């Protein structure tokens, strides 16, 4: 048991202990198994541990080979950005257990005196690491910016609401004058994503969205003022329309178009990125012609039926998403897929084949391996009735895609188009369970 993580359990008061009698199990889809050694890593800094209400810890008795349910609560980890989950925690859910909040839940255990988690680092970019940066420095910078732009509602929102209230990593970077600047513009959306982090309907089983949606529409002048400020401070600036605190930015297509044109007219440079559901091909074409040079398309699957179960689009179809990618690539826009990865589902054969077809058909440049923030059992229930074969695991999933799509690269964040995108080192696969 020395080289395998033992089970973590928790008491209702929040105390977490390691139970050396049982090995940690992980879940991939509906499969319970021991974690693959190559898909484990020490718990990254700036990660968090959660106890899971209404869910009892389950471990493996190595001597008997029995799977044992314990009285104590299960424990999960929320891993720091730039890491992708390879397995969810295994637990036994009580009948009236509450739906889990919108986080990504990684299986976590302990080897020796260190926590180990089912996740892999997929991006070396440190843009959302704030170790060594005083929170007081960030707060002071945000307040200074608010004083500098007293009439810019967007800047006030980003500093006061996003930095000082929510401690949003993207907004903190804007306050620090580095990396990627968030540019929210829309408070409406044409999708009803089950795991939306800024809006939940009255019929939702999720207690509440973790963020409030933007409650005003900025002007093009306000948008461009934020962009130009960021350009003054970052040598390889990225400006990203589309954030978790808003709806779908394409619903403000004219505002985006006017902002991009004005920014370019004022000598704006850098990576102009759109994080989007890519539901409006004509708007994507117009924005690309105006100067948009990076598009990140959010999907949970390249299969239409799986996509529709989660996104629940209003007045657009999955084919529109494909057409938007086609329009962007035809104009030489760098296209990333914001792939909401879910272990045991995203890496199954049917999903991989569909993803390879999508990537190769339109020569998609990049896949961002983001975690799907959702109660794992809720998501599996949502997909009930759709066939998913055996899963390959994250590492084999990446190797398979790279072999079939040699031009494709992987990461976690929107890359700067001013900087060369580095090839990832090859990782060894491990077919054993």
Report on this structure.
- This protein has helices spanning 135-148, 153-163, 169-176, 220-233, 253-265, 281-290, 304-311, 318-330, 349-362, 376-382, 394-404, and strands at residues 6-10, 16-24, 26-28, 31-33, 41-42, 48-61, 66-78, 83-85, 88-89, 91-93, 106-111, 114-117, 119-121, 180-183, 238-241, 271-276, 294-299, 334-341, 366-371, 409-411.
- With 433 residues, it is of the alpha/beta class.
- It has 2 domains: 6-121, no CATH class; 135-411, Alpha-Beta Barrel (TIM Barrel), CATH 3.20.20.
- Strands 1, 2, 5, 6, 7, 10, 11 and 12 form an 8-stranded antiparallel beta sheet that branches.
- Residues 429-433 have low confidence and may be disordered.
How are the SSEs ordered, and which strands pair?
Blueprint: E1 6-10, E2 16-24, E3 26-28, E4 31-33, E5 41-42, E6 48-61, E7 66-78, E8 83-85, E9 88-89, E10 91-93, E11 106-111, E12 114-117, E13 119-121, H1 135-148, H2 153-163, H3 169-176, E14 180-183, H4 220-233, E15 238-241, H5 253-265, E16 271-276, H6 281-290, E17 294-299, H7 304-311, H8 318-330, E18 334-341, H9 349-362, E19 366-371, H10 376-382, H11 394-404, E20 409-411
Parallel strand pairs: 14-15, 15-16, 16-17, 17-18, 18-19, 19-20
Antiparallel strand pairs: 1-2, 1-7, 1-11, 2-6, 3-4, 3-9, 5-12, 6-7, 6-10, 7-11, 8-13, 11-12
Helix pairs in contact: 1-2, 2-3, 4-5, 5-6, 6-8, 9-11
């Amino acid at each position: 048991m020395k080289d395998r993580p033992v089970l973590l359990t928790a008491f209702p008061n929040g105390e977490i202990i390691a139970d050396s009698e049982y090995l940690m199990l992980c879940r991939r889809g509906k499969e319970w198994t021991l974690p693959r050694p190559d898909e484990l890593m020490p718990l990254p800094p700036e990660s968090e541990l959660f106890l899971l209400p209404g869910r009892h810890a389950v471990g493996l008795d190595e001597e008997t080979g029995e799977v044992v349910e314990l009285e104590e609560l299960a424990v999960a980890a929320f891993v720091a950005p730039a890491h992708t989950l390879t397995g969810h925690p295994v637990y036994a859910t009580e009948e009236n257990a509450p739906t889990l909040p919108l986080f990504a839940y990684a299986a976590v255990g302990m080897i020796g005196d260190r926590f180990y988690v089912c996740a892999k680092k997929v991006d070396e970019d440190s843009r959302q690491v704030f170790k060594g940066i005083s929170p007081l420095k960030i707060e002071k910078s945000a307040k200074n910016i608010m004083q500098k732009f007293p009439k810019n509602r967007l800047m006030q929102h980003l500093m006061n609401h996003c930095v000082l209230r929510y401690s949003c990593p993207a907004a903190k970077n804007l306050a620090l004058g580095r990396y990627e600047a968030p540019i929210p513009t829309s408070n409406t959306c044409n999708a009803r994503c089950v795991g939306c982090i800024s809006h939940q309907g009255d019929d939702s089983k999720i207690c509440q969205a973790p963020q409030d949606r933007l409650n005003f529409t900025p002007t093009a002048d306000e948008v461009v003022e934020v962009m130009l400020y960021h350009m003054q401070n970052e040598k390889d600036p990225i400006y990203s329309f589309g954030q978790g605190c808003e709806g779908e930015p394409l619903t403000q297509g004219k505002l985006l178009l006017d902002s991009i044109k004005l920014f370019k007219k004022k000598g704006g440079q850098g990576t102009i990125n759109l994080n989007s559901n890519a539901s409006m091909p004509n708007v994507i074409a117009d924005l690309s012609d105006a100067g948009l040079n990076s598009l990140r398309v959010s999907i949970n699957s390249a299969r239409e039926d799986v996509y529709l179960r989660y996104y629940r689009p209003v007045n657009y179809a999955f084919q529109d998403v494909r057409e938007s990618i086609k329009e962007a690539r035809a104009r030489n826009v760098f296209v990333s897929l914001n792939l909401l990865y879910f272990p045991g589902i995203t890496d199954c054969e049917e999903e991989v084949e569909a993803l390879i077809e999508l990537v190769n058909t339109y020569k998609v440049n990049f896949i961002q391996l983001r975690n799907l923030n959702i109660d794992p059992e809720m998501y599996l229930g949502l997909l009930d009735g759709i066939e998913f074969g055996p899963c390959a695991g994250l590492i084999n999933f990446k190797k398979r895609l790279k072999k079939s799509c040699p031009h494709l690269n992987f990461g976690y964040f929107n890359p700067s188009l001013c900087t060369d995108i580095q090839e990832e080192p090859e990782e060894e696969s491990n077919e054993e369970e």
